[in-house]
Design a protein that fits this description.
Largest sheet: 6 strands, antiparallel
Number of helices: 5
Number of strands: 17
Distance between the termini: 23 Å
Strand content: 15-25%
Order of helices and strands: HEHHEEEEEEEHEEEEEEEEEH
Radius of gyration: 26 Å
Strand order of the largest sheet: 13-14-6-5-12-15
Number of domains: 2
Structural class: alpha+beta
Helix content: 25-40%
Oligomer: single chain
């Protein structure tokens, strides 16, 4: 068994997965409020050792771990993928239906066919019924939604103005308030497509207490740094090329050398 060949193959697959993450970051460079993803790479043995103490049969697990093939479990793998919620720059659009949040742990709530979701992309529109929605058609949830199940509706030909706390007015008359959600553990949020986030427990989400959190006529830019991502892209491509050369060496040079030597051994 050529364990080195399989180690290199595992390393290459890990870099391919990292390349997918970097490519997705670059593809969303101009997506409002997009938060970049990153990965933590570690070898399997380290991941195994970190987890084995929490396994149910600790003694047996530790005894069995002595027989793990160390030459195989050193293969680099992605041990964690996470989202960086750093605040992106605010960009003025002059559109009264664009809203930016000034805090990295603040989110708008929207109603989707799969349930309530969070988003930081405040690029909203009005549907045919005058209800404020995302561009995908998901209604924006107001503060009192869980009491009356009503969405934010703008009177026909009415204007829309919001203050810094998210209170909404049309032609000077109050019509509701954004549900600006926050969580003590934003790391538990998971991306769910279309700039949305899902969370494991609705009870862990509560309205923010911040008073200066909404900016109308602005959108939050993506927090992707194109220079940083391009450096990662070049680094990943070079690692893949290096792994390819090692694989070629394993298959061609070492195998050829082994065959020639075995063929020259006399019985």
């Amino acid at each position: 068994m050529q364990s080195g060949y399989y180690d290199v193959t595992g390393g290459m697959v890990t870099q391919f997965n990292r390349l997918d993450v970097i490519s997705n970051n670059l593809a969303n460079l101009n997506t409002p409020a997009f938060k970049r993803d990153d990965v933590v790479i570690a070898d399997f043995k380290r991941i195994y050792q970190d987890a084995q103490d929490s396994m149910p049969i600790q003694d047996n697990t530790k005894e069995a771990a002595k027989f793990v093939n160390a030459s195989v479990v050193r293969v680099p793998q992605i041990s964690q993928e996470y989202t960086k919620f750093d605040q992106g720059a605010l960009k003025s659009t002059g559109n009264s239906l664009d809203f930016a949040l000034k805090s990295k742990d603040a989110f708008f709530m929207v109603k989707t066919p799969k349930g309530i979701r969070l988003t930081q992309n405040g690029s909203f529109v009005l549907n045919n019924d005058g209800i404020l929605t995302t561009k995908e058609g998901y209604p924006v949830v107001p503060r009192n939604y869980f009491k009356n199940s009503q969405f934010i509706k703008i009177p026909q030909n009415g204007s829309l103005v919001t203050d810094k706390s998210g209170n909404l007015y049309s032609d000077g008359n109050p019509i509701g308030q954004f549900y600006i959600a926050t969580s003590d553990d934003i790391k538990s949020l998971q991306k769910d497509g279309d700039g949305l986030y899902k969370f494991p427990n609705l009870n862990s989400i509560e309205p923010t207490s911040k008073k200066d959190v909404v900016a109308q006529g602005f959108l939050e830019s993506s927090n992707v740094n194109p220079v940083f991502e391009m450096v990662g892209l070049i680094e990943t491509n070079r690692l893949v090329e290096m792994y390819q050369r090692v694989m070629k060496s394993q298959m061609d040079d070492l195998n050829g050398d082994a065959i020639n030597k075995l063929a020259s051994v006399r019985a």
